[in-house]
Each structure stands twice: as structure tokens, then as C-alpha cells.
Amino acid sequence: MKRFSINLYAAVILAFLSVSMTCEDDDLPDTCTESVAEKTKSVNGFDFRTNEVVAVFTFNQDYKTYSGNACQGNQPGGEIFLQIKNVTSQTIKFDYSINYQMGANKWNYQNVATIAPNSIIDVGKIAVSPGIIDQNGSALTIQANQIIYE
To answer: Structural domain boundaries of the chain?
Structure first.
């Protein structure tokens, strides 16, 4: 009978040590680390009447990812910004639509641009997306209606 109580006593001590060690690990602060990668994609805009490039659309994204126990709820993604450069020697005006799709991730942006010759306009933020703007397999299309030269 004594043997049983000694073994049981030893098992209780080991269980207590195990619980104590677990509690100490739980007392460590949870961390969340954010990583940011700058992504850029440029797309030429053509006037198909002349078959010439008239504008360059440059998309910039600060793509954020998260790692760590305290990151629950933080989804990868980032804001997408647009600049458009007129590469002609004339002022151009056009309305345009941008469509992005990668799997179930989709967004659309529409606007009108008037750009002086050889100038750049900063359109600003056009979307917040969990998709990576320059990732293979992503579809980015730009449609512009009639380009007017002034």
C-alpha cells in the first residue's frame, strides 16, 4: 500500500511541474509581426486607332503579411495606388475602367483622366486588395473609351 501512495505522490509532483512549466509559457506575450513588400506593375495603354502606346499605368502596392500568435484577424493585402503617364506630345483625355481578378479576389475602378503632354498624374488610392498586384495568374485589364487629343 505504501508503494502505491509513493508512486501516486511522484505522479502528482510531475503533473504539478508540467502545469507550472505550461503556465510560464502562457505568460509570454503574444506577438504579431507585420512584413511589408513593395509591389509595382506597369501596363501600357494603347490607342488602337494608331496602334501606339499613349499612356503608362503604374500600380504600386505595399503588400502586408502577418505572422505570430497575436495576428488572428489580420489578413494579408494592401492599398493600391495608381499613376498615369502621358507619353505623347499632346494633352490626352479619356475615361477608363480597371478590372482586377485573382481567384475569388476582384475589384474594379473607374475614372476620367486629362493629362498634359509628357506628364504624370497621381490618381491616388484606387483599391484595397488581399491579392498581390504583380502575382502570376492575376488578371489586370484596363479599358479606355475614345482617347481625345487636345
So the answer is: 1-29, 33-149
* Predicted local distance difference test score (pLDDT) of residue 5: 41
The percent of the chain in helix, strand and coil, each rounded to the nearest 5, is: 20, 55, 25
SS3 100: strand
Distance from C-alpha of 76 to C-alpha of 55, rounded to nearest angstrom: 30
In CATH, the number for domain 33-149 is 2.60.40
**Euclidean distance between CA atoms 49 and 1, whole angstroms:** 100
Q: Are 75 and 130 in contact (CB under 8 A)?
A: yes
Give the C-alpha separation, 103 to 29, whole Å. Answer: 36
21-80 pLDDT tens trace: 333 444 445 789 999 999 999 999 999 899 999 999 999 998 898 888 888 878 888 899
Residues with Cβ within 8 Å of residue 38, at least 6 apart in sequence: 60, 61, 62, 63
With H, G, I as helix, E, B as strand and everything else as coil, classify residue 56.
strand
Other CB atoms within a 10 A radius of the CB of residue 101 amount to 15
